[in-house]
Amino acid sequence: MTKIRIGVIGAGLIGRKHLRKLAEHGDYELAGIADVNAEQVAAEQPGARVFADYRRLLDEARPEAVIIASPNQLHAENGIACARAGIHILIEKPVTDTLETAAGLIAEVRKAGIRSLVGHHRRHHRQVKALKALLGEGRIGDVVGVSAIWATHKPADYFKAAPWRSQAGGGPILINLIHEIDFLRFAVGEIVAVEAIAANRQRGFAVEDTAAALLEFENGALGTFFLSDCAVTPWTMEQGLGEAPEFPFSGQSSYRLMGRRGAIEFPSLDQWTQEGGAQDWNRPIQAQANHAASIDPYVAQLDHFRDVVRGVTPSLQPVEDGARSLLVTLAIAEAATARRRIDLRERYAALGQGEQATT
Q1: Distance in angstroms between the alpha carbons of the first and the last residue of the chain
Q2: Of 65, 107, 67, which is closest to residue 311 (Cα–Cα)?
Q3: How many Å apart are CA 304 and CA 351, to the nearest integer?
Q4: Pfam family of this protein, just one (predicted)?
Q5: What CA–CA distance (Å, rounded) separates 206 from 166?
Q6: Bridge partners, residue 271, by sequence
Q7: Which of the residues 163, 204, 227, 266 has an alpha carbon 20 to 30 A from that of 42?
Q8: What pLDDT tens digit does each residue of the chain (359 aa) get?
Q9: Rounded to an integer, what distance in angstroms lies between the CA atom of residue 78 and that of residue 246?
Q10: DSSP assignments along 66-96, one per residue
């Protein structure tokens, strides 16, 4: 079958990761790369066509599909240009930087009829798919609640390398929590209301270093989430899955999902049920191991995008869905500042109409 001619916009940290995976993937042919640091990228990618302006990549290289890995504030502009050129997109998360720009991108993608995939790569882990299947089978009954942690200690060099990380918008809510919110939406169900509180007492930066959120799911489940980038723990998804070399593998579960008939830890997938399927606190609770093989989620994501581009399968996460994960995360940041509960249903409806809710 003919290879898919693909371009990459943005050759920063995540863009380079995509380029490495593409080089090893037999179903893609690299049409070109666009990056403002064209000379440096050309030296790093010998033999590749490199453009300083992404519009030249679209016009001259004429890719069938593009991976957008540019800075967040450029996602909408890049995606809209691709849509108008009839080019399918894999757009890194967050889908855009604001709900206004997300609504504009959604409208253009719909108008052009192109296929889209948002790069929340965790949806492609086999452990995540196994969890979703176990919940779908009713292994723990109706989900009652979720208790989750993402806590690690970012070193001082992390902030020195990019000073914006110590300013508003650079904290763990908008950088890290969005991954977790997308995972929860995918595995458990839609989130319809949030509350939150945040603090910056540990580092004293202008942005939070610690936060706690309350989540209400459409299916009636409730959730708590503790988030910190200044606490030493083994409890992050990255450490539990071993998905990134920056996070040494711990194998520890950072999620506990509790249901009417049992509970599941994630990512270990250990399942807890009472003897004989009872629902009685006087009966012993027994553990059962479930297993799912580890894979490279970025390769699996490219496999899925290939099938999306070819029309073999619907997208696991089109831009409309990625915008909903952005909406929830932004609402948590807002709730932490306003110290109030925020119902998200009207905002979802407004986003679906291509508008941002103002209430």
Answers
A1: 50
A2: 65
A3: 26
A4: GFO_IDH_MocA
A5: 6
A6: 264, 288
A7: 163
A8: 899 999 999 999 899 999 999 999 999 999 999 999 999 999 999 999 999 999 999 999 999 999 999 999 999 999 999 999 999 999 999 999 999 999 999 999 999 999 999 999 999 999 999 999 999 999 999 999 999 999 999 999 999 888 888 888 889 999 999 999 999 999 999 999 999 999 999 999 989 999 999 999 999 999 999 999 999 999 999 999 988 777 899 999 999 999 999 999 999 999 999 988 888 898 899 999 999 988 999 999 999 999 999 999 999 999 999 999 999 999 999 999 999 999 999 999 998 765 443 33
A9: 29
A10: EEE-S-GGGHHHHHHHHHHTT-EEEEPSSS-
- Mark which of 242, 263, 294 sits at the end of a domain: 294
Its domain, for residue 221, covers 126-294
Distances, alpha carbon 53 to alpha carbons 34, 42, 60, 74, 222, in Å: 6, 13, 11, 13, 46
Q: What is the CATH number of the domain that holds 283?
A: 3.30.360.10
Same domain, 17 and 71: yes
